[in-house]
Amino acid sequence: MTLTPVLRRLRSYQRRIRQARMVARAIKSKHHPILAHIIPMRRCNLSCAYCNEYDKVSEPVPTTEMLRRVEILAGMGTGIITISGGEPLLHPELDEIIRGIRSHGAIATIITNGYLLTPERIERLNRAGLEHLQISIDNVMPDEVSKKSLKVLDRKLQWLAEFAKFDVNINSVLGGGMAHPEDALTITRRAIELGFDTSVGIIHDHDGQLDPLQEKERAVYDQILKERKPALFTFAYDNLFHKNLALGQANDWQCRAGSRYLYVCEQGLVHYCSQQRGYPAIPLEKYTQADRDREYSTKKPCAPFCTVSCVHRVAMLDLVRNEPREALTRFFPPATPGGPPQLPGGIQVLTTIFLPPADGRPPSPAQKIVGGAAMKIFGVK
Question: Of all helices (H) and strands (E), which one includes residue 202?
Fold first, then answer.
């Protein structure tokens, strides 16, 4: 028995406070990025057939350049910086990049295939200050399409459960006519057993567009939703985006890519996302507030059938910012048509503190006092 699970729980509470402050800032103002992806390494140690985000030859971006990009993003007010790839664990000075992110007060996360994780490597990530790690697992047994299998990675997951002091999310995938969709349920159950957060993604084509679920895949998806216990934000995301995607239906939303979400490739250019590389393709150091304001309202033709969850989640915060009561109704639908939204207790408390009464009356003096105190706790001026 080690203290790691206890320490991870304590650190998780601290992270929740920081995340709450990040959300409060995002809702308070639309003039800074909420999330940015940075790519320090396009090369990958795997060759998954469906992936268009890797190569076999690229050298790592110099650490000094990565730290410069992190500093620029921090200067924009970016709340979360996610390191992706390729395979970020191949970068020889990844820990230094993570420290750089934390030194600016941003939340540091990585997305990895997990192959290079060892107990020693996990401890180094702990010391660097990593706050969140995600692994997507595609199947139970490796096949010609993907080697990211539970069979190969399960030992890595056990090490994460034993040693990681950061949050871990295991993402399973559905769609694309995969041979064994039931694997996604097996992966979800194993992640829950190990105490990790879970999510489920829907496979997209090479433009990030929807590949609708088949009947058997939808049944697996429904069962996953029944068995897992998602966090509030994930639950809201399922209601707002995933349920339509699972049915092959378009989503009606405003994509904020290029504004609230930035994808910075290995060349240091800003793109909409990993699946829409090529525009605006402006160097990060030349990407201005005017660029971000323009892209905030730009209609993206790929949006209705987009499956890129990072961009979806960022847009959810702006929906709360712009139309808070409508957003809550969409996130937590009423039990009966026309009824009130089914708000969890914590959300009800926050609604009472921050939103004016639904009947249009001005907030009471007590509500103003409590709201002001809460804003100070969340670090919002």
Answer: strand 197-202
Burial class (CB in 10 A: 0-12, 13-18, 19+), 40: buried
149 has which bridge partners? Answer: 139
Tell me what the pLDDT averaged over the chain comes to.
86
In this model, does residue 37 exceed pLDDT 60?
yes
Pair 200, 188: CB distance under 8 Å: yes
Distance, in Å, from the CA atom of 308 to the CA atom of 209, rounded to the nearest integer, reads 8
Tokens of 45: 């140690």
Which pLDDT band holds residue 368 (cuts at 50, 70, 90)? confident
| pLDDT attached to residue 230 | 66
Q: Cα separation of 186 and 151, whole Å?
A: 11
- pLDDT reading at 211 higher than 70: no
Residue 169, strand partner residues: 134, 197
φ, ψ for residue 354 (rounded to 5)?
-100, -25
pLDDT of residue 380: 64
- Which residues contact residue 131 at a Cβ distance below 8 angstroms, ignoring those fewer than 6 apart? 15, 102, 107, 108, 109, 166, 167
Residue among 119, 14, 99 at smallest CA distance from 110: 99
| Residue 92 to residue 99: CA distance in whole angstroms | 14
151-189 in b/e form (b: 16+ CB < 10 A) is ebbeebbebbbebbbbbbbbbbbbbbebeebebbbbbbb
Quote the CA–CA distance of 348 and 361 in Å, as a whole number.
18
d(CA 220, CA 56): 34
Q: Would you say 271 and 203 are in contact if contact means Cβ atoms under 8 Å apart?
A: no
Per the CB < 8 A criterion, the answer to whether 274 and 265 are in contact is: no
Each residue's pLDDT tens digit, 105-160: 999 999 999 999 999 999 999 999 999 999 999 899 888 777 889 999 999 999 99
> Could you give the 3-state DSSP secondary structure of residue 249?
coil
- Determine contact, residues 363/351, Cβ cutoff 8 Å: no
pLDDT band at 170 (very low <50, low <70, confident <90, very high): very high
Neighbours of 241 (CB within 10 A): 20
In one-letter notation, the amino acid at residue 72 is I
Tell me the average pLDDT across 157-164: 96
